[in-house]
Amino acid sequence: MIHRRYPGEYPAKPLRESWFGWSAISVAAAANLVLLVRHAEKAEVAGNDMLAKDPVLSPAGRKRAESVALLLKDANLTAVFSTDYWTGRIPRIPHSFVCDIDHAGFFDMNSSEHRADRSDLVPAMCAAQVIVPCYDLQPTLNFFVERLGFRLDVIFPADRPSTAIVSGNGVTLRLVANSDAPLPNLRLMVDVSALPKDAPRELRAPNGMKIELADANPSIEVPEGKQEFVITRLGGSDVWGTGRAGMEYRDLIPNRLGGRFVASHIRIAKGGPVPDYVHSHRVRFQMIFCKAGWVKVVYEDQGPPFVMHSGDCVLQPPQIRHQVLEASPGLEVIEIGCPAMHETIADYDLLLPNNAFNPDRLFSGQRFVRHVARDAKWSQCRTVGYEARDTGIASATDGLAGVRVVSSSGEHAGAVRHYGELLFLFVLSGGLELRNDDLGRQGLGKDDSCVIPAGIEFELTGHPGSEMLEVALPADQSQL
Ligand SMILES: [Fe+2]
Fold first, then answer.
1. CA of 268 to the centre of ligand 1 (A)
2. I need a surface site. Which of 316, 321, 331, 363 has the fewest CB within 10 A?
């Protein structure tokens, strides 16, 4: 038990016994103060030896950990240390709290990276209201309460109301009579199957406000797509752009094949903890291939975090929740998804790793795949002079997509022609040559990629010792 006196503030008391009193202590007033936090609330984990050795926090433990983060949010911490066990880490808390102490290891809280996160305004935030002007308050108030089921929270003045606050469906509206505020639109997410058949999908409130009724669970729209020959060369017209969570993106299919596919070469130059959060993607197909360096990731129902090394690959089934935790300097991955435009959905309620371990779980009919290059078996392709290691994605997607790494001994592969929706090649090492009567001779080097359109024949020759990533949809359209 730790006893400590804070000069001029409190008598010495065990921290554990004075948990709430401790919250009032001005931590910043003490010089070189070191706080020790120990988590004892381990979750019960059955069926997973690794999680049993390194369990996550129980709900009570997580609550306590979040309390610690809350207590320390204004303490001007200079550094945070933690063990490499999950119980030693304080889980992610809302971004408004400045102490980003959910990762293992050491953090310099004075770095510009952390200072940039701090806002003087955020700690003062309590709630949000959207100002909705209306000429006459009562009809608009009635519309929101009676027609849309909102709840009246506040109204004033009592003798002649001019302002009413209503809330519902996760939004609070401040209805203000005779306001010159601009009129907003409102998008309400609804269960379409529960709507009456003839229900309009757009309403007008008495104050003129547009109310759109949108499907809360829309099916994934996959554009029909367009078949085109695409070559993208490293150092060509493509540029690295800054994307989500501080990652740099290079577009490997700039025209997106009519919106059906996106292929990205992603890199994190600096390495270290990745400012990611638990999230999922609304996709039909998505895979990630680690091209260089390593990245630590964690997936829902797939056990503890693991490290993907160069050559490893994962299939991210539709809507599996996951988080990128940490990357080596110089991390590079190739990510391919369908459709090209898809949503990333944050989940602040789930802490990963979760306690369930269910590697056979199906997500929209697909099973999670972790392909480890070191353990992979190479087998002869049907084309002489080519070998491949299959990632298992064809089996896990029931043939929707096939992903292989193909190695060439330098033989001419002969004619390549497919009739699927995608044939994508990325040169991992060495090079290859494509020839076609109309498009001539096209040489691809390391980090170059191409999309071969359906129905058009190419002659393909890999350079000796070359390796390429081949992604085909459907899987049976693999060419080598
Ligand atoms: Fe993701």
1. 15
2. 363
Cα-to-centroid distance, 245 and ligand 1 (Å): 10
- Residue-wise pLDDT tens digits, 155-197: 999 999 999 999 999 999 999 998 889 999 999 999 999 999 8
- Helix, strand, coil shares of the chain as percentages rounded to 5? 15, 35, 50
Q: Ligand 1 centroid vs 376 CA: distance in angstroms?
A: 24
At 60-83, the pLDDT tens digits run 776 677 677 777 766 777 666 666
DSSP string, 294-347: EEEEEETTB-S-EEEETT-EEE--TT--EEEEEE-TTEEEEEEEESSS--EEE-
Asked if 285 and 338 touch (Cβ cutoff 8 Å), the reply is yes
- Is the Cβ–Cβ distance between 139 and 151 less than 8 Å? no
The answer to whether residue 100 scores a pLDDT higher than 90 is: no
- CATH code of the domain containing 317: 2.60.120.10
Cα–ligand 1 centroid distance for 276 (angstroms):
9
CA of 168 to the centre of ligand 1 (A): 30
Last residue of a domain, one of 77, 109, 124: 124
Q: Quote the domain boundaries for residue 105.
A: 16-124
301: left (phi > 0), else alpha (psi -120 to 50), else beta?
Answer: left
Same domain? 141 vs 114: no
Q: How far is ligand 1, taken at its centre, from the CA of residue 242, in Å?
A: 15
| Tokens representing residue 379 in the block | 């087998």
Which of 404, 371, 468, 426 is CA-nearest to residue 250?
A: 426
Q: Which residues pair with 367 in a beta bridge?
A: 362
How far is the C-alpha of 232 from the C-alpha of 234, rounded, in Å? 7
The closest alpha carbon to 42, from 25, 18, 16, 61, belongs to 61
